[in-house]
Every structure is written in C-alpha cells, then in structure tokens.
User: What shape does this take?
Amino acid sequence: MNLTLLVENNPKIESFFKLNLSTWLGLEIATQSKGESALKFLDVNSSQINLIIVRARIGKEATAKLLIDYMATKNLNIPIIIVGESSGSLHPQVPNSMDIKLLIKTAANCLGITAKEMMSKVVPDFFPIPIEHFNDIKRPVCHVYVQDQKQPKKYTLCFEKMKDFDMSAINAHVVKGVTHLFVDKLDRLDFVSNITSELVATLKIDDLNEDEQLSATDQSVELLSKKLLNLGITEETISLAKKNIDAIRTNVKKNPKLSKLLDRLLSNKSSYLFKHTQILTYVSLHIIRNIDWGTPEQEDKISFISFFHDIALENDIQCEIKTSNELKRAQLSTEQNSLVERHAQIAAELVSKFPHAPMGSDQIIRQHHGQLNGVGFSDHYGANVSPMAIVFIVAEEFTRIIMKHSSGNMNQDDMLRELKGEFPTSRFSKIIEKLQTLNL
Ligand SMILES: [Fe+2]
Ligand SMILES: [Fe+2]
Assistant: This one.
C-alpha cells in the first residue's frame, strides 16, 4: 500500500503534480486521465493505493463523485483529495490546482506525514529527477549530473547551470537507457519549482478557472522577471511577456467591478508585485478609456508600462518601497539596495530593447519614481512630465491607496480625497477626476 493514484487530464498539471509530490513527500504515483479508466485501475490495484488525488470534474464527467461512489459500493477506505471547485464534499479539497503548497500539505495530512518528518527526510546527495522533465525546460537552474552506468557512485556533470542545452543531448541519454538525471540535493527544491513555473507558464488560460488563471499569471510573471534579468530580451522572454500582458488585460475585462478582482487576488494569496501590477493595469486603463485623448494605442501603451515598470524587483518587500527613507529603513543587503534604487533604470533599459515597444514607454518607466535617470526616489515631478506619465503616476498612487485599504472598508470618496492630497495641482486633479467613475 504505497502508491498514490492521480486522476488528472491536463498532462502539464499532471507532470508538475507528480514531480512535486515525489520530491516533497517521496510519493510514488500512478496516473489516469479520466474517471472511467481510474475505476478500471482501482478494480485491479486498489490494495496498493494509499491516497487518491482526483479532479472534481474532467470535461462533463463528475470524476471525483464517480470515484467516491465507487469506493462506497466497494467498501474501500482510501483517503481522497479533490482538486478543483467542488461544493458540499466532506473530502479535503484543493480548489485551485495552481496552489501546489496546499496540495502538498493536504497530501501530507492525509498520509500522516508531519512537517518535521518532511524536513528530516534523508535525501541522497545526488537527487534523481525523471529525465522526461527535461523536455519542459531549455536550461537548468542548477548543475545537472548523470550517473555512471558501471560505477553507480560516480556522477558526472552533464548540463551546466543556466546554460541552454540541446534536446538531442537528452535523447542521447534516453537512447542509452538513462531514466533519471541528478541534481545536488540542496538544489532540488529550486529545480522543481523552476520546472513547475515553466509548465504553469505554458498552460492554456482557457483550461483554467478564474482563480487558477490569476495564480498561473502570478507565477508566470515571476518566472519572466527572473528570465529578463538573466537572459535579457530574447524571443523567449518577448513571447512570455506578451502572453502575461494579455492575461492581465483579460483579468481586467472579466471583472467589471474592481473589488471582485481584488477579493480574488487576496484570497489567492497573490504576491504583492503581481497584485500591484494587476490593479495598476486596471486603474490606468480606466483613466485612459475615460480621457479625451485616450485611444486603443494609448491603452496598449499604459498596459505595457504597468507591466514592465517594476519587473526588475525580486520580492514583495522591495516592491513596497517608494521613498528613499523607506529604502533606508528596509536595511537590505548592498546588492538588493542597489537593485531597488536602480529598478526603474533597469526596466527602462530592458524595454528600450523590446521590439516595437510603444513609443516613449521607456522614458515613463525610467521616471516612474520621479528621477530623470531612473535611479532613486523623489516626490517632485518636474513641470515637463508628459500627460501619459501623469496618468501613470496617479494610477500608481491610487493603486497603493487601494491596496492599503483592501482588507478594510474601501470608501471611494475618502480614497480619492487622500489621492488629491498627494497631488494638489490642477494637471493632476484633472486626471484624478476620471477615477470617480471607477467601479469599485
Ligand atoms: Fe510600482
Ligand atoms: Fe517602482
């Protein structure tokens, strides 16, 4: 009794579920892609199974219910975890399939594996990764080794950290009968989390529910941010950026009420950086749509700027800093301090290399903290700031106010008053007015 049955029809989700469950909990996993075949599998193997993880629905099939009914008629007592939205079930649930942490925690609970046991699990120095997972990446985030077929204790470096490898090299190993490649045990969680993000970033948005879409975009933006810093502007990063910008705009369209989107972002435990980018896109698009000079091109431009302006930042703490004093108080390492100071400049430089970037977007990004060269922070915006830059500055400040109030009472009039207090001059107040019609 040591096999987990996973019933999931999306091959990419199946793949990262398997990889995470085996890495974190040491589970051995059998997979089926629909309820019918899962029942046949259980007919023969139920005595081997100690846990079932099943989609609530696969297409039109009520897959989880099918399995639960089957277990009742056969008098089987195997714990079940339901993935996806399902109401009224007493079985443990993971409503959002992108929430890998919850899946791991729930599986550990069902199997009686404690956090302490998870931490103290003895792991070999070279940790095996099934070779098929190398089809999902172009380069590994750590060194990768191959085990010597004659001397099993000998491992040789085969792929270097962050160097692109050729698929033919993987195939050559497969031909030789290699089933696993290896990473240093200290690198294994980073490696697995990278493969997970790569798979999540390639999921089709239409295959996911709204919560899953938000989580997937959040992870995908984080992945892109790392890639931009490592690889710069390449075909790969360009297409991932376009996909993410589209996804963020789709989220705006799907939520006519901002508070609904905000609730989803909060309950999804989205990162600060992603929440900030998503809300900022919402607010700035609203202004452009309601201003007399707004055009579809300007909408593209403001979405592009909102997406890229903080892309160089690595984490939520860095993203919340907006003054020199806050930066000092954060007591970051020298390296992180310099990154926060220069994040506007770094993003502007990236954008200037982006093919067909909207005209002038690099300049607005460079100056989004009030400094002409994109280094450091200032409260003073010069007299020659463009109308588009003013829209962005106002939208960013309003986003900050919204997020500050998001867990409490959001009164639009109070929030707008706070915003006007920050920008009393008329060129700003004309733009602030447009936020009165924003549907909170
Ligand atoms: Fe920002
Ligand atoms: Fe910023």
Q: What stands out?
A: The radius of gyration is 25 Å. The domain at 3-120 is CATH 3.40.50.2300 (Rossmann fold). Residues 276, 309-310, 396 surround fe (ii) ion (ligand 1) (CB under 6 Å).
